[in-house]
Amino acid sequence: METGLKGRVAIVAASSQGIGQATAEALAAEGCRIAMCARNAQTLHAAAQRIQKRHHVEVFAHALDVTDAEAVHRFVDVVVSKFGGIDVCVTNAGGPPAKGFLAASLEDWRNAVDANFMSTVYFAREVIPHMQRRHWGRIITITSITTKQPVADLVLSNAVRAAVVGPVKSLANEFGKDGILVNNVGPGYTATDRLKELAKARSATLGKSEKEISDGWSADAPVKRLGEPREVADAIVWLASERASYVTGQTVLVDGGLYKGL
């Protein structure tokens, strides 16, 4: 399938591992020039080197904290200087800790808002003017199935991930005239380190083994298995491509049918 992404410039945040890394690799496979960022410099640069070697595209990697607005500003400036513009921006950040409401501190709430909501705002503010100049752009946020259906022990994610849907719809409405499409991808239970952390928390709460917890999640999905990061990445590539040129303001779940609503 021709995606129209060859030569495009794509930023992928929190891309040193998991879904972010899979997304950077999937976009690189389509011929995008990739700008990666994450907090851990060592794992980030190792991932960038693997992607560059495998797909023979330009890859720029820079360690930063997505909750730092000034750091995001500087990163985007460097990417534009290096590549000449920005076409695709995938916003992403590690999920907040698994906690119930009374166990979550006010600091936990502030951190969740900064990482999982404000980081999207920071990136959008920086990349939209560059996309307007090209009259073409794709902003894709990575959130969770919790935007549609709350998950036990994830009160922080349930609240903050859902909040991201508001800016997604608003930006889609405001900037569609500029050729900028804005969408959200909500993974279900996906085999990442984040899911292992949740399984550990559930195990301690319920007195079951982590394998029992994981098997239960698989059983809940109609496809009877966990998702893979590459499967989420494939949906993101489609939304970034010319094949999704009339799709904007949407939340696309990649959850194996886990969401029970209509």
* Uncertain stretches of 5 or more adjacent residues: none
Q: How many angstroms does the end-to-end distance come to?
A: 29 Å
Q: Strands across the major sheet, in which order?
A: 3-2-1-4-5-6-7
Largest sheet: 7 strands, parallel
- What number is the mean pLDDT? 97
Please provide the ordered H/E string of secondary-structure elements. Answer: EHEHEHEHEHEHHHE
Radius of gyration: 18 Å
Strand content: 5-15%
The helical percent reads 40-55%
The total beta strand count reads 7
Structural class of the helix and strand makeup? Answer: alpha/beta
**Net shape:** globular
How many helical elements?
Answer: 8
Summarize the structure.
The chain is α/β, with parallel strands linked by helices. Helices cover 49% and strands 15% of the residues.
What would the keywords be for this entry?
alpha/beta, 7-stranded parallel beta sheet, 262 residues, single chain, 8 helices, globular, 49% helix
Topology:
Layout lengths: L8 E5 L4 H12 L3 E6 L2 H15 L3 E5 L5 H15 L4 E4 L14 H29 L2 E6 L12 H21 L4 E8 L5 H14 L3 H11 L8 H12 L10 E4 L8
Parallel strand pairs: 1-2, 1-4, 2-3, 4-5, 5-6, 6-7
